[in-house]
Write a structure and sequence with these properties.
The protein is α/β, with parallel strands linked by helices. Helices cover about 50% and strands about 15% of the residues.
């Protein structure tokens, strides 16, 4: 059914695809359970210090945008260099080029903000050797479909793996794409995120420290219907002192601050539909 829907949608012009995406998004907002809706509004209200009514406007925009994102994922296997560059512009691309020129690969630190799948496609079609670290979907057929769409532009898909596998990717000069705004539970580093402690993946800092690889924060946001911009920041370097935990904590905090600043600038494009803020367990974090 998804493949059939994808084929039908892809026969439409950009304006038609965008309109369908908006309709899907509006229906998703209406069908969102009340408990989940309240959680999103509370997350935004607390994180951005907004009145609940203002937070609801952002909450709705954050939820409905997924309709457009789904339609854009459907279209990824039709993209080529010319078409993707007509949809996606780069700002700060030189930072990524400089990091890769070191010959150590690099880690691309990003978040569930904007259409991160489109960012992957744009990078691959522009010749960047991206290996995306993915989480396997519960539905096997849906997992296969999503990964086919990701691979079509040229991405190498690697399921969540051990550090040694990511090190091998770096040694091959790959860009390892990692989403840093996921709950790492007790294995994470607890750093302030919107003034509350959040368990944050330590992997990017740990791997970069191990291999001396640069970490390049990069995000994508929508500038117009169907049009996007990728913002690439200067590389972050991990110190290598006698205190490994302190090095990893400092870098994870720096990256989290960059992510938070981006979300504050584009709050309606972040995935507020979860709760990463938890009480710090004893012995976790720094």
């Amino acid at each position: 059914m998804i493949r059939l829907l994808s084929r039908i949608v892809n026969t439409l012009p950009l304006s038609g695809r965008h309109a369908i995406g908006n309709c899907i998004g509006e229906v998703s907002w209406l069908l969102l359970p009340h408990r989940r809706r309240e959680m999103v509004i509370n997350n935004i209200s607390n994180g951005l210090s907004l009145h609940p009514q203002d937070a609801q406007v952002i909450a709705k925009a954050s939820t409905t945008r997924f309709g457009r994102m789904i339609i854009e994922v459907f279209y990824q296997d039709k993209l080529n260099l010319n078409s993707v560059n007509a949809l996606v512009a780069f700002r700060g691309r030189e930072h990524l080029d400089t990091a890769l020129a070191e010959g150590k690969g690099c880690i691309l630190a990003t978040a569930h903000s904007g259409n991160w799948e489109m960012m992957s496609a744009a990078l691959c079609l522009n010749g960047y050797p991206l290996a995306a670290i993915a989480q396997k979907q519960h539905n096997e057929q849906m997992d296969r479909f999503i990964n086919e769409q990701r691979r079509a532009p040229g991405a190498e898909i690697v399921y969540r793996s051990e550090v040694r596998d990511m090190v091998r990717l770096l040694d091959r000069g790959k860009i390892i794409g990692l989403l840093m705004d996921q709950d790492a539970h007790q294995k994470g580093v607890f750093v302030p995120f919107f003034d509350r402690l959040a368990s944050t993946p330590a992997g990017p800092a740990a791997i970069a420290r191990l291999r001396g690889a640069p970490i390049v924060p990069a995000f994508i946001h929508e500038v117009a219907p169907g049009k996007h911009e990728i913002i690439v920041h200067q590389a972050v370097r991990v110190a290598k002192t006698a205190d490994r935990d302190a090095d990893i904590y400092a870098t994870t905090l720096q990256l989290t601050n960059i992510i938070e600043a981006h979300i504050r600038q584009y709050p309606s494009e972040w995935f507020w539909l979860h709760n990463r803020w938890k009480t710090q367990p004893p012995g976790c974090g720094r």
